[in-house]
Amino acid sequence: MRTLIRNGMIVAAVDEFKGDVLIEGEKIIAVGENLDPMADHVIDAAGKYVLPGGVDQHVHYSFEFKGERVRGFETSHAAVAGGTTTVVEFVNQEQGKGMADTIFEFDEKEVSKQAMADYSYHAVVCDPVDSTFEEIHDLPNRGISTVKLFMAYKGMPFHSDDEALYKALVAAKDAGVTVMVHAENADVIDILQKKYVSEGKTAPYYHALSRPTRVELEATQRVINLAAMAEAPVYIVHVTAGEVMKAIRSAKNDGLPIYGETCVQYLMLDKDDLAKPNFEGAKYVMSPALRTKADQEALWEAVDNGWLNAISTDHCGFDWESQKHMGIDNFTDIPNGSPGVENRLGVLWTYGVNTGRISRQRFVDLFATTPAKNMGLDHCKGHIGVGMDADLVIYDPDKTSVISNENSLHGVDFSTFEGYTQEGEVTKVFLRGKLVVDDGEFIGEKGDGKFIPGKPFGLCFNEAKTNKELDQSKV
Ligand code: URP
Ligand code: ZN
Ligand code: ZN
Ligand code: ZN
Fold first, then answer.
1. How confident is the model at residue 463, as a pLDDT?
2. Is residue 100 part of a domain?
3. How far is the centre of ligand 3, averaged over its atoms, from the C-alpha of 16 (Å)?
4. Fewer C-beta within 10 Å: the chain N or C terminus?
5. 16 CA to middle of ligand 1, Å?
6. What is the pLDDT at residue 281?
7. Torsion-angle region of 314 (φ positive above 0: left; ψ -120 to 50: alpha; else: beta)
8. Looking at the domain assignment, is residue 458 inside a domain?
9. List-wise, which residues carry N6-carboxylysine (predicted)?
10. What is the distance in A from the centroid of ligand 1 to the CA of 333?
11. Average pLDDT in the 246-263 region?
12. Which among 286, 313, 315, 333 is the best mutation to test ligand 1's pocket, defined by most ligand atoms within 8 Å of the CB?
């Protein structure tokens, strides 16, 4: 069966042009002008943008914080409704178990039958024994090409020290596995948290004060140094501040393979949101903490210039009433993280593209093309081209709405972007050729999403790639 999407403005990371996309089965088989009038279905996309389905390289559908768990893959249709067709999930290694075994047990139990977006996985190092670091070499054979370590969260099962970080960097570089790091100084945060709580300063705003920019800056500089010592690339997740971005940019300028992303909320919100009355501030408790308007501008500049190469969501579906309220008397008990996977396209389009901060090309690059490259998924995801998966979004720029939790599929009781205007609407989405959003409504089914193995030697290895590694990464 062939579907032809005609006369849309097809946007790529490098250019855009008015034309047609022809889909057969799960794949794009032609992109050009005046294609096959014999298609079974013809969709007129005149006046609309045709975008590659988004790749969100940073989501949490299994994260647990002090016993509270986020909404799972049963809410992954929110991603699709928002134009994100591939999500990459962090899976915390179980103690005494291999990382890949932990991942694929979770996949079997919770993901494969429920996913409504395609997905891939990051392995999170939680049990820093020799066999864990040895396993890193084997992860690409199982379709896992990224590992994550948390420098933050002292005392939690997923916290890592410098020893674990360095060992992971050394093991990962030979295997072409990208090490991703949540960079914050856990010890200083712990001291500051205890200090504020002992002074009776327990409101959500103290979350931000206990995690100042310097705790992120120090850890970022430290991991840059560890990576340099290990002669390995490293990817810093959720960069929040201008000063932190500058540390990454300066390392890049020194020729080091240091990469980073930011997230939508750090471009849009600031720490004043944490001061909202009646415990509303808890909705914005996430780590690292929200910063300032000046930081937002520095981050916009960074994504425009490629100093940070992707915009993710760090999506965490925690409920405000039933979960965030755990910390009503103590901000350190508020589950960290906020929902957003559904809003990435609409918010970035409205406040990035339509304000002139980033071009449509930069948007597509940050939203889909480069995340796919970071994750070793670019053989099938992130770009509208012949042979690629037919993951496509038709975006109508003329519709305007107000973001509200009332029409959200996140499955929680609040929206991080409640009340923000959204310019444009995701009207149709194809997931590997299947129409899963029509007229702005999700019409897919549980199980539509499938596991996409990530290939090793992703973008972070570009500078270090030898021909041999290049060959290996393509087989
Ligand atoms: O607050 C956040 N970001 N929660 C999710 C876990 C993490 O740190 O990425
Ligand atoms: Zn994190
Ligand atoms: Zn995260
Ligand atoms: Zn192309």
1. 59
2. yes
3. 32
4. C
5. 35
6. 98
7. left
8. no
9. 148
10. 14
11. 97
12. 286
- Residues within a 6 A CB radius of ligand 1: 60, 63, 182, 286-287, 314, 316, 336-337
Range of the domain at 333: 53-381
| Residue nearest ligand 1's atom 8 by CA | 287
Q: Note the pLDDT tens digit of each residue in 298-330.
A: 999 999 999 999 999 999 999 999 999 999 999
What residues are paired with 358 via a beta bridge? none
Q: Find the CATH number of the domain harbouring 325.
A: 3.20.20.140
- Whether residue 467 is predicted with pLDDT greater than 50 in this model: the reply is no
Summarize the confidence of residues 34-56 as an average pLDDT.
94
Number of domains comprising the chain: 1
Determine, yes or no, domain membership for 192: yes
Instruction: State in Å: Cα 31 to ligand 4 middle.
Output: 8
Model pLDDT for residues 111-160, shown as the tens digit of each residue: 999 999 999 999 999 999 999 999 999 999 999 999 999 999 999 999 99
Whether the Cβ atoms of residue 27 and residue 40 lie closer than 8 Å to each other: no
Q: Tell me the three-class secondary structure of the chain, residue by residue.
A: CEEEEEEEEEECCCCEEEEEEEEECCEEEEEECCCCCCCCEEEECCCCEEEECEEEEEEECCCEECCEECCCHHHCHHHHHCCEEEEEEEEECCCCCCHHHHHHHHHHHHHCCCCCCEEEEEEECCCCCHHHHHHHHHHHHHCCCEEEEECCCCCCCCECCHHHHHHHHHHHHHHCCEEEEECCCHHHHHHHHHHHHHCCCCCCHHHHHCCCHHHHHHHHHHHHHHHHHHCCCEEECCCCCHHHHHHHHHHHHCCCCEEEEEEHHHHHCCHHHHHCCCCHHHHHCCCCCCCCHHHHHHHHHHHHHCCCCEEECCEECCCCCCCHHHHCCCHHHCCCCCCCCCCHHHHHHHHHHCCCCCCHHHHHHHHHHHHHHHCCCCCCCCCCCCCCECCEEEEEEEEEEECCHHHCCCCCCCCCCCCCEEEEEEEEEEECCEEEEECCEECCCCCCCCECCCCCCCHHHHHHCCHHHHHHHHC
Residue of the nearest CA to atom 7 in ligand 1? 287
**Confidence grade of residue 462 (pLDDT, cut at 50, 70, 90):** confident
pTM of the model: 0.97
Q: How far is the CA of 90 from the centre of ligand 3 (A)?
A: 8
- How many Å apart are CA 465 and CA 135, to the nearest integer? 22
